[in-house]
Amino acid sequence: MSITSDSEYQCIAPIDFISTTKVPESHTWVLNPCDENLLESIPTIDLLDPNAISLIRHACEKWGIFHVINHGVSSQLLDEVELQTRRLFSLPFDQKLQAFRSANSFSGYGTSRKSCLHPKRMWSEGFTIFESPKEDVHKLWPHDHHQRNHFCNVMVMCRNEMNKLAETLLDLMFGSLGLTQEDTKQVKPKTGWKNPYGPLQLNSYPICPDPTKAMGLAAHTDTSFLTLLYQSNTPTGLQIFKEEIGWVPVHPLNGALIVNLGDLMQILSNGQFKSVLHCAVVNNTHHRVSVANFYGPSNDVKLSPLIQLGNIDHLPLYRSVTWKEYLEIKAKHNTKALEFIKN
Questions:
Q1: End-to-end alpha-carbon separation of the chain, Å?
Q2: Which of the residues 57, 101, 148, 288 is marked catalytic?
């Protein structure tokens, strides 16, 4: 296990949640008020609905997030992804640490690097997959060749299917703004959307002895174009912030995937579509897991508001930026990052 410093280790290393009977001071938060019985809910869009494109535009403008059904990703695959995710996180703590993220890698086991932006640590653990997970998975199951192969195959299938769906959704979003394939080719990497950049993130939110004190994942926006999220059918963990309402719970919907917009989509749409502020809370009865597929361009593709959206009344709100550059800005300024690239 290679790390640069004790402080970095303390920042992104989880604790052994299974053996922790009390929320330590290092993990104690003041939580956002959220009414779990709130009737307001995010939109649900059926991709087979002939009005899907207009519904997507409305959801992207008003919410920045929606459920999607009839999306084409099989329920059998998603069930197997959840099973393998739970199998990974149920391993003994010391065994999971064998795949701890090294200093020069974003792949492997650990907590979100967003932890380093906050004085308190989070009640969660994660496993990040960028390309092939084989090397990290070998550390988790060194003597189980079949389990290693099956896990890797399932995750590769999941990522491929989610990327196909993300490509479809992105075209629908651009189409809802009146943009054509020709209009948007400037933001596509030379290899096309077939090789997008972005990780598959497995998240674990263990049972917490006092969920009123702990935070699963602190409030943030994603940086990607969009994120596809699968969440287990357990007590609600995901919450989003909606202006004039406050924090809204996103209850699991059987068979649906969650689509949430990232900052890069807000940039491309010149602010017409909004990235959504969200967080994850924990509970004291069920181990919750989720799987997030982040979809975006190559690191070096320059992104700016699409000129076809600009007119005399809507000058570009943001300067040109690459995803790599924006990630560096985000690492310093977190939820205020967009303010630092405004024109």
A1: 43
A2: 288
173's enclosing H/E stretch is helix 145-176
DSSP for 180-214, please give it.
-HHHHGGGS-TT-TTS-B--EEEEEE---S-TTT-
Phi/psi-derived region of residue 108, left when phi > 0, alpha when psi is between -120 and 50, beta in every other case = left
Is the pLDDT at 323 greater than 80, yes or no?
Answer: yes
**7-65 pLDDT tens trace:** 556 677 889 999 999 999 999 999 888 877 776 889 999 999 999 999 999 999 999 99
- What does residue 333 show for φ and ψ, rounded to 5 degrees? -115, -5
- What mean pLDDT is reported for the chain? 89
- 288 carries an active-site annotation: yes
The set of residues, in sequence order, having a beta carbon less than 8 Å from that of 294 and lying 6+ positions away, is: 198, 199, 200, 201, 222, 223, 224, 227, 262
User: Token digits for 12?
Assistant: 């992104």
The count of other CB atoms within 10 Å of the CB of residue 269 is 24
Answering whether pTM is above 0.90, one says: yes
Fold of 31-341: Jelly Rolls (2.60.120)
* Token pair belonging to 166: 């993300």
Pairing status of strand 246-249 against strand 238-242: antiparallel
What does the block give as tokens for 139? 């550390």
Map out the domains of the chain as residue ranges. Answer: 31-341
Q: What is the DSSP code (8-state) at residue 13?
A: P
The string of DSSP codes covering 48-64 is TSTTHHHHHHHHHHHTS
**DSSP character at residue 100:** B
Cα gap 312→237, rounded to integer Å: 43
Query: What is the Cα–Cα distance from 274 to 32, expressed in whole angstroms?
Result: 21
Residue with tokens 């919750």, as numbered in its chain: 288
Helix or strand run (H / E) with residue 293 = strand 288-295
Q: How many CA atoms lie within 13 A of 99 on its CB side?
A: 27
Strand pairing partners for 257? 68
Q: How far is CA 251 from the centre of its chain?
A: 16
